[in-house]
Amino acid sequence: MKRTKNTARPRVLRPGMRGWLGRGRGESFYVQAADEWRGTSVQVCGLWPFAVGAGTPMVGVPLGRHIHTGATLCCDPISWFQRAKLISNPSAFVLGKPGLGKSTLVRRMATGLAGYGVMPLVLGDLKPDYVDLIEALGGQVITLGRGRGYVNVLDPGEALEAAERLRAAGYEKEAAQVLADAHGRRHTMVSALVTIMRGAPPTDREETILDRALKVLDARHNGIPVLGDLLRVIQEGPQEVRAAALDRGDQARYQAITENLEASLVGLVDGGRLGETFARPTTNPMRRDRPVVYDVSSIDDTDMDLQAATLLACWSAGFGTVNVANALADAGLEPRRHYFVVLDELWRALRAGRGMVDRVDALTRLNRQRGVGVAMISHTMSDLLALAHEEDRMKARGFVERSGMVICGGLPGAEMPQLTAAVPFSRAEQDLLIGWQDPPAWDPAAGQEAEPPGRGKFLVKVGGRPGIPIDVQLTEVEMGIHDTNKLWHTVSRIGAMATQGSGVA
Ligand SMILES: Nc1ncnc2c1ncn2[C@@H]1O[C@H](COP(=O)(O)OP(=O)(O)O)[C@@H](O)[C@H]1O
Ligand SMILES: [Mg+2]
After folding, report:
1. Is the CB of 222 under 6 A from ligand 1?
2. pLDDT digits over 284-327, tens only?
3. Confidence bin at 490 (pLDDT 50/70/90)
4. Of 77, 215, 256, 383, which one is least surrounded by beta carbons within 10 A?
5. Ligand 1 neighbour 98 (Cβ under 6 A)
6. Ligand 1 atom 8: residue of nearest CA
7. Predicted model pTM
8. Is 456 in the pocket of ligand 1 (CB under 6 A)?
């Protein structure tokens, strides 16, 4: 039989679309995703047209990788506001349970921004979480606390010198504004300290007396006054102050009117509950050309009033400095500087009493005009909403609502109604956040807890857009610098030695 040509060619077997069909032959039911690599347009230009965009913004500080796609996310409030125009004001609110890496995330932002020439200002570090970083950046560390350092609330800082420079350059109006701002700031600080001392704000009349007394002090006093000098002016009762007190020319009446105020000031000057932290000349004046951290970690958490008063003094000094820098830059006398202000553990400051919320409120509303990016960090919405007064609670919720971006770590399910009232989160996003706060597994082999599942995981939300889930991975350098558990590295043997010793004796 003659063979045809066709049958002579051996039959070529090819796998189907999903591999070899049939039992035990490796048929695949899933089409596997192609591997993805990331490169710059210079490196991968030849790959056209197989390149795709990242899908996540690439402007700003590299924060971490997208949990599902692995794409890098670059994000920080200043770059997203200034360059990418993704958010309406340069601020971020970070929420999440303790220990999940909020401070670490903000430290990453601060590190990256410092690389872009933005100056991080940590106005009150209670842990300390930022001191090592600021030191590594060559910045200024200002230590405050009982017996460790003082901040004079009547010190106008660099305002006087700046006003003189502005005047010399022919900017009369701007010089007057800088001085007026410094005056207002000092007045606010004295009122705030009195508020914290008494647990209630000073009366209208007392506010006016303080205002006049500060003006008298400025006119008469040589050098930088301290609270003791202010007290003396009020005790002496010059004409202007008497007029504000409405004493009707009666010395006894003047003394009766100013008695409460005098008592509060005496308490502040003579090392009352708030110590002398605010009544002595400033030990370490803040600079405006460096990263700065106020280290207030030596103040005990139970010393709530001192903590709040110190934080307030740090904010006041910090924003005063920013104001001076802006005025000088507006006049063209100095280069423009941008600052990244970090307010960590915000809830501690807010709960210290009425007036604190207003103060932060005023600061955060102005941040766009001031050329300042702000990161506020707190644990949960319920911490923010645990304030005594309804109007304070409304304002505290406003911080989250008004923030350009909200970054959430693991949060308990009970938080969700309050959170979604401020920022819309989808059901899936809420489940993600709740999953991240699960407790870590117990690792029987190592005899210790594994990493908490939610550590370093955050959802970045801008307005009603879907959140971007990311995983923050620390670099080796960061691990070296960012060690918040330093005190626990060496195992204490002192107690063991003491018991051994007594056993021998
Ligand atoms: N992305 C991360 N990878 C590894 N460890 C982390 C990460 N983020 C935080 N940590 C560690 O977790 C601990 C708590 O972090 P921290 O930022 O202080 O939390 P929080 O401010 O939320 O209380 C620190 O010891 C820190 O080094
Ligand atoms: Mg923290």
Report:
1. no
2. 999 999 999 999 999 988 888 888 889 888 988 898 899 899 99
3. low
4. 256
5. yes
6. 101
7. 0.84
8. yes
**Is residue 103 lining ligand 1, measured as CB closer than 6 Å?**
yes
Only one residue has tokens 């409030």, namely 77
Domains of the chain by residue range: 25-118+338-505
Q: Residues with Cβ < 8 Å from 90, sequence gap 6 or more? A: 77, 78, 80, 81, 82, 367, 368, 372, 373, 374, 404
Three-state secondary structure call for residue 117 = coil
DSSP 203: P
**What are the pLDDT digits (tens) for 417-430?**
999 999 999 999 99
Gap between the Cα atoms of 296 and 310, Å rounded: 8
- The pair of structure tokens assigned to 74 is 């670059």
Superfamily of domain 25-118+338-505: P-loop containing nucleotide triphosphate hydrolases (3.40.50.300)
Distance from Cα 64 to the centre of ligand 1, integer Å: 14
The three-state secondary structure class of 98 is: coil
CA of 58 to the centre of ligand 1 (A): 24
Token digits for 482? 């960012």
Among the bound ligands, the one closest to the CA of 101: 1
Residue 484 CA: nearest ligand 1 atom is: 25
- pLDDT recorded at residue 385: 86
Q: Would you put residue 78 in left (φ > 0), alpha (ψ -120 to 50) or beta?
A: alpha
